[in-house]
Design a protein that fits this description.
Length: 97
């Protein structure tokens, strides 16, 4: 599965965990985008990759829609994604015109 990581933070640990599980980290035609940061990083990723499923990971407690970024949690999450054991939740977007 192709994945990209959108972040303003160092992501070495995340790259290592995802590659261990078999993900290919590439910006070209990703199947999923991992966002590591907060709400702003998630919005930025949607602007760059509209319609591609996002997995929001958080660095702090501020992002209520994000998953804590503990390595064990990321490993389990990666396994579930590869097995197809997930559901996509759609959020509404507002676009200024």
């Amino acid at each position: 599965m192709n994945a990209w990581i959108e972040s303003h933070y160092p992501t070495g640990f995340l790259v290592r965990e995802l590659k261990k599980k078999g993900f290919r980290i590439t910006r070209s035609k990703p199947d999923v985008i991992f966002t590591y940061g907060g709400d702003g990083t998630l919005l930025e990723a949607e602007a760059r990759f509209p319609g591609v499923p996002k997995v929001p990971l958080r660095e702090s407690r501020l992002c209520s829609t994000c998953i804590p970024s503990h390595p064990a949690r990321i490993s389990l999450l990666a396994e579930k994604l590869l097995k197809g054991a997930y559901r996509i939740r759609t959020e509404q977007k507002v676009e200024a015109v």
